[in-house]
Design goal:
With 312 residues, the chain is an alpha+beta fold. It has one domain: Beta-lactamase (3-Layer(aba) Sandwich). A hairpin with a 4-residue loop joins strand 5 and strand 6. The two termini are 32 Å apart. The relative contact order is 0.19. The chain binds 6-diazenyl-5-OXO-L-norleucine.
């Protein structure tokens, strides 16, 4: 099913329709994340994909209006919100190198003195959320307000069941936060930070919402209302970190196959940016062993192959 919100420009709609047909035919769609029980029941064959153009035109195929758990996709937005506030000082507390390790790994933190490799592994995202919390007093609320404003969807919200499920299974993130606190790299008390982080990850949004909310990265830092969130350089930096670190220890393969800045989440969503042109969001809950959506990566791969659009 295809629903259009505007008729001004639907350049990529035939491409999306072709991708949806291909995905329908593809077997082996991975497995939904089972370490968060609230996500485990999702059918891995579900699929939706949306494109948002620079002027806010948005269209899609499949379940592109269906809300799903955004999870680590939100790490892009908290990074942008914190970078906008504190600028380069952030990079004294979190690096910007690929980790080559799973998203929830602890292994590098000790020999790198509590400074996580990048803002998109869990340790790095915890640092970013902590710093945003210090600056705003409500990091998750700030994020939610941003997503609502950029998507124009005021009904976006936290999913209390998912947040509670993560809190109940949050030992690994708690360990990361306490360990970094022991190096002085966390300002807030750990329970407050974890509460903010789990609520952040629990936000539910659709492909349409997330494609629109990512638009500032294709517009070189300009928000939907025309105001500036990031400098042009900062927008480039966030896109670069997405390209090199946005899909964890599969970032090299993602860059090879898709050739765009992208960020995945274990809810099965992936956002991607074609700077100066458009943004994409794809959702399919079946994950590979690294936590990236199987059909999501395949769909983005096909998109750049069919359109010839990539940053390379
Ligand atoms: O920290 C966690 O475990 C999750 N709330 C977020 C993980 C996630 O989405 C990583 N992604 N692929």
């Amino acid at each position: 099913m295809v629903i259009m919100t505007t008729t001004s420009s639907l350049t990529f709609l035939p491409v999306l329709e072709r991708i949806a047909e291909e995905m329908e035919r593809t077997p082996g769609r991975g497995r939904a994340a089972d370490y968060i029980p609230a996500l485990a029941a999702l059918d891995p064959r579900r699929f939706g994909m949306a494109v948002a153009e620079l002027d806010g035109t948005v269209y899609g195929v499949g379940e592109w209006r269906e809300p799903f758990s955004t999870q680590s996709v939100t790490k892009v937005f908290t990074l942008a919100l914190d970078l906008a506030r504190e600028g380069d000082e952030l990079w004294e507390h979190v690096g910007r190198e690929p980790s080559g390790n799973p998203f929830n790994s602890l292994v590098q933190l000790e020999y790198e003195n509590g400074i996580p490799r990048n803002p998109f592994i869990n340790a790095g995202a915890l640092v970013v959320t902590d710093r945003l919390q210090t600056r705003t007093g409500d990091a998750a609320g700030e994020l939610l307000a941003f997503l609502r404003a950029e998507s124009g969807n005021t009904s976006l919200d936290f999913d209390q069941e998912v947040a509670a499920s993560e809190t109940a299974h949050g030992d690994r993130n708690a360990a990361l936060a306490h360990f970094m606190a022991s190096y002085g790299n966390i300002d807030n008390d750990v329970p407050t930070l974890l509460d903010q982080y789990f609520r952040q990850c629990s936000i539910t949004a659709s492909c349409a919402d997330l494609a629109l909310a990512t638009g500032f990265l294709a517009r070189h830092g300009i928000r939907a209302d025309g105001s500036r969130l990031l400098t042009r350089s900062q927008a480039k930096q966030v896109n670069a970190v997405m390209l090199t670190c946005g899909t964890y220890d599969a970032a090299g393969n993602f860059a090879y196959r898709v050739g765009l800045p992208g960020k995945s989440g274990v809810g099965g969503g992936i956002i991607a940016v074609v700077p100066g042109r458009c943004t994409l969001c794809v959702w399919s809950p079946g994950l590979d062993e690294r936590g990236n959506s199987v059909a999501g990566v395949a769909a983005l791969d096909l998109f750049t192959t069919l359109t010839g659009l990539s940053v390379f």
